[in-house]
Write a structure and sequence with these properties.
967 residues; Aspartate Aminotransferase, domain 2; Aspartate Aminotransferase, domain 1; seven-stranded mixed sheet; globular; binds pyridoxal-5'-phosphate
């Protein structure tokens, strides 16, 4: 019998990207379906998903492409971005990412596919890099404590305002912002202030601050105009009025300047972008946040701290984890969850590579070039307004600014057009000699005189007065002084990466986090020069490639979700929540219903939900869940009626954080609408919906999408991410806009928008290429299949584990959605074993633990995603089942309740080779629990970490080397 002769179409389909992204092949899918009792993938979806919410996705506006075609398309797209030399400044600068860092960190899945270091024992590498980041920020700002990144400088400034309000003693409601702050910073601070009832006053703080009665003041140092003034008079005035001094600053400038911490600053923020991280048309970049030790417990974001492990040796972890939103909910200090870990890590390696002397040299060169530029312009007869500067000057050119800026563009240089009479010029690490000459020519058309750069160099006065100069060392810790050769840095980078479990080692079954494949082809465009080297405020005619990317991505997201418009500005899910709730608030206000101030949130919600609602000025009212984990419709009905015309919104996650498709969702949305409220759908679980349901059809008015979950942006060890929001038509006019770039919200009607929520107009624009590529390569059919297989994989894991661990919640036909919760609560009583013990024991088996104790305490939430094949799922299930047998030994009294293989997990190599072994179990069992020879055994670098010790003795600086050396 002759073999079936495949058609050309069939042959082409077999080479499509889909089979690379989706783990199980058709044969595995068939086997796995059997265990779940479904006849086919379609049958499985019919059984798992309620009919009422099924929808078919309209065709995507773009044809799907294979990997090669996608790269070809993106290469054409990138050509539509024209790369000019950016001298715009305003918080974004040209920088040189050392190639060794680009290839071995930014382009290395060992770094970019890791998750937030909640499981500290398998995250020591990135924790060390983040600790270096904190140390770097502390040293340069001279503050006592720093966090491990925030989303961008503008949101960090808004966080500073909020913290000043929380911790300060001045009872006023006015926050004073220096008019020499970057305009986007002012805009984001204004947006944040309004719902909190705070008033923003702007002006010259040296003149107007005292009279303002403000509880805090934000000063830019150096100013947006380039000008540098001592912070001391402001600090003195602020402290006299019990107000806090917040400073937005520049790390490179601080290698030369007197640090804010030595001049009385209370909170210091800024961006670390120019430490080797490309501008990327706005991001991603890591902001930093530093403050006084006294305020550490009020500090937003994550802080890496030093603790000890079970052998008493130093080990790193995220400190004060209990402060996270999941505990504090609407009383959380901030809603930030995903931050900017990878960009922070990149910036820290840049500092490690250059060291203090190298950074100072870069800074001095930038400063000298700027001084030569200023002197040259003065000699050419121009008035340079900035007397004391680092890298930026403002030039007065009455009536000529537009013309000169246009001339500069003819030389492919972008200047900052301040107004009709003023231009700003910013230099950076990439500025070259010939650009100085080019600039002089741009300004002085007729002048024949050519200025001699070296002659000017010999003559220019230092532009910084002594009182403003840094005295004393910084970055003196060994880590910043021993990795300056490429060989040493390469080995350091590799050593740290080897300590961690990322997706390049094993599946990471973190529920709610969607740790799916981040395909290499999706990652390539991020580092294309024409995407990486674009300033976010570059003229739009130079960024047509990006505009095309946004348009196509927005259209595809609309087709997928059913929404009418998208905003790509929010740069994390939490920011999307906040922006979406502000949109709802603005909508109610536009209809004269400003009294609607109640936001209903189910008890099972992710902690960012109540935190965002509080930030948006809503009163949070909790809706109960029933014993099946579903929202109690009766309670919802009662609360909606009770609050009546005060009801603003319901925030609901779908499928629920319990991992099931609630059948009542359509009714739930209808109830909220009937009472005049709007429905905010938390879209973090969209990976269970794409192609089979649409949020807008189910009843959502607005929803954020975590592109770093469903749409393949890697998690980067805790960021970056993107949290764009989709809205139905009536909400589109309220979507964010931007103070510097026009047309960001084309639907904006006059001044209706919510303002600005991120520093950059389109958030972390450069990583949008990843999601675009994923959608295009999968196509509608591939995306739908991915959803089906994600649901299949979760149900397969649930079916395999169900005989060993109860599955906490199931929906229709006993099936789960794309994740499942296994219940471990009973084990505490029967064996003394906790979720923590199981999580740490999984490390001995080579796995990263599932999500612990969210949304239900003492449970594990498993989300396998569609990218894991059956072999990997089985490996994980086998490990979980083997652990259950180990627990059973304790239950039967065969193993001790305290001295057992789980309580002592994870087991290190050091322990294995130690002379003494006094455990009641064998070394083989401890370290090689499955008979598999484990050639690829993962060795945790530390034993179990003592969390309490770390929080009681909070140390957030790099420990001296000696601490590692002595045993
Ligand atoms: C991840 C997640 C969020 C927060 O998103 P970030 O991008 O981390 O800010 C919100 N809700 C749910 C259900 C999530 O899983």
């Amino acid at each position: 019998m002759s073999e079936h002769r495949p058609t050309l179409i069939e042959l082409e389909q077999r080479t499509a990207f889909i089979r690379r992204h989706i783990g199980p092949d058709p044969a595995q899918i068939a086997q796995m379906l059997e265990l779940t009792g479904a006849a086919s993938l379609d049958d499985l979806i019919d059984r798992a998903v309620p009919d009422a919410i099924r929808a078919t996705m309209p065709p995507l506006p773009m044809e799907s492409m294979n990997e090669r075609e996608t790269i070809g398309y993106l290469r054409q797209m990138r050509e539509r971005n024209r790369i000019f030399i950016s001298m715009i400044g305003m918080g974004y600068y040209g920088t040189i990412m050392p190639a060794v860092i680009k290839r071995n960190v930014l382009e290395n899945p060992g770094w970019y596919t890791a998750y937030t270091p909640y499981q500290a024992e398998v995250s020591q590498g990135r924790l060390e890099a983040l600790l270096n980041f904190q140390q770097m920020v502390m040293d340069l700002t001279a503050m006592e404590i720093a966090n491990a990144s925030l989303l961008d400088e503008a949101t960090a400034a808004a966080e500073a305002m909020a913290m000043a309000r929380r911790v300060g003693k001045n009872p006023g409601s006015v926050f004073f912002v220096d008019s020499d702050c970057h305009p986007q910073t002012l805009a984001v601070v204004r947006t944040r202030a309004e719902p909190l009832g705070l008033t923003i006053v702007t002006g010259d703080p040296y003149r107007d601050f005292e009279a303002s009665g403000a509880f805090g003041v934000l000063v830019q140092y150096p100013g947006s105009s380039g000008s540098i003034r001592s912070l001391e008079p402001i600090a003195e005035a602020a402290h006299r009025h019990q107000a806090l001094l917040c400073v937005a600053t520049d790390l490179l400038a601080l290698t030369l300047l007197k640090p804010p911490g030595e001049m009385g600053a209370d909170i210091v923020v800024g961006s670390s972008q120019r430490f080797g991280v490309p501008m990327g048309y706005g991001g991603p970049h890591a902001a930093f946040f530093a403050t006084r030790d006294a305020y550490k417990r009020s500090t937003p974001g994550r802080i890496i701290g030093v603790s000890v492990d079970s052998h008493g040796r130093p080990a790193l972890r995220m400190a004060l984890q209990t402060r996270e939103q999941h505990i504090r909910r609407e009383k959380a200090t901030s809603n930030i969850c995903t931050a900017e870990a990878l960009p922070a890590i990149l910036a820290s390696f840049y500092a490690v590579y250059h060291g203090p002397q190298g950074l100072r040299t870069i800074a001095r060169r930038v400063q000298r070039m700027t001084a030569i530029l200023a002197e040259g312009l003065r000699r050419l007869g121009f008035e340079v307004l900035t007397e004391t500067f680092f890298d930026t000057i403002t030039v007065r050119v009455p009536g000529q600014a537009r013309r000169i800026a246009a001339r500069a563009r003819e030389s492919r240089i972008n200047l900052r057009l301040v107004d009709a009479d003023h231009l700003g010029i910013s230099f950076d690490e990439t500025t070259q000699r010939h650009e100085l000459t080019a600039l002089w020519r741009v300004f002085a058309t007729r002048s024949e005189a050519t200025l001699d750069i070296d002659a000017l160099d010999a003559e220019v006065e230092p532009a910084l007065a002594d009182g403003l100069l840094r005295a004393g060392d910084f970055l003196s810790h060994p880590v910043f002084n021993i990795h300056h050769s490429e060989t040493e840095l390469l080995r350091y980078v590799r050593r740290l990466a080897a300590r961690d479990i990322a997706l390049d080692r094993a599946m990471i079954p973190l529920g709610s986090c969607t740790m799916k494949l981040n395909a290499t082809t999706e990652m390539l465009p991020v580092t294309y020069h024409q995407f990486a080297s674009v300033h976010p405020f570059a003229p739009l005619d130079q960024t047509q490639g990006y505009q095309q990317l946004f348009e196509e991505l927005e259209e595809m997201l609309c087709a997928i979700t059913g929404f009418d418009a998208f905003s790509l500005q929010p740069n994390a899910g939490s920011q999307g929540e906040y922006a979406g709730l502000l949109v709802i608030r603005a909508y109610h206000r536009s209809r004269g219903e400003a009294q609607r101030d109640v936001c209903l949130i189910p008890a099972s919600a992710h902690g960012t939900n109540p935190a965002s609602a509080a930030m948006a000025g809503f009163k949070v009212v909790v809706v109960a869940c029933d014993e099946n984990g579903n929202v109690s419709v009766a309670d919802l009905e009662a609360k909606a009626a009770e609050y009546g015309d005060r009801l603003a919104a319901l925030m609901i996650t779908y499928p629920s954080t319990h991992g099931v498709f609630e059948a009542a969702i359509v009714d739930i949305c209808a109830i909220v609408h009937r009472h005049g409220g709007q429905v905010y759908m938390d879209g973090a679980n969209l990976n269970a919906l794409v192609g089979i349901c649409q949020p807008a059809q189910i009843g959502a008015d607005v929803s954020h999408i975590n592109l770093h979950k469903t749409f393949c942006i890697p998690h980067g060890g805790g960021g970056p991410g993107m949290g764009p929001i989709g809205v139905r038509r009536h909400l589109a006019p309220f979507l964010p806009d931007h103070p510097v770039v026009e047309g960001v919200n084309p639907a904006a009607a006059g001044k209706a928008t919510i303002g600005t929520v991120s520093a950059a107009p389109w958030g972390s624009a450069s990583i949008l290429t990843i999601s675009w590529a994923y959608i295009v390569m999968m196509g509608a059919a591939g995306l739908t299949r991915a959803t089906q297989v994600a649901i299949l994989n979760a149900n397969y894991v649930a079916a395999r584990l169900a005989p060993h661990y109860p599955i906490l919640y199931t929906g229709k036909n006993g099936l789960v959605a794309h994740e499942c919760i296994i219940d471990l609560r009973h084990l505490k009583a029967s064996s003394g074993i906790t979720v923590d013990d199981v999580a740490k024991r999984l490390v001995d088996y080579g796995f990263h633990a599932p999500t612990m104790s969210f949304p239900v305490p003492d449970t594990l939430m498993i989300e396998p995603t569609e990218s894991e094949d059956r072999r990997e799922l089985d490996r994980f299930c086998d490990a979980m089942i083997a652990i259950r047998h180990e627990i059973a030994e304790i239950e039967r009294g065969e193993a001790d309740r305290e001295n057992n293989v789980l309580k002592h997990a994870p087991h290190t190599q050091a322990l294995l080779v130690a002379e003494r072994w006094d455990r009641p179990y064998s070394k083989q069992r401890a370290c090689f629990p499955l008979t598999d020879p484990q050639v690829d055994k993962y060795w945790p670098p530390v034993g179990r970490i003592d969390n309490l010790h770390g929080d009681r003795n909070l140390v957030c600086t790099c420990p001296p080397l000696a601490a590692y050396a002595d045993d």
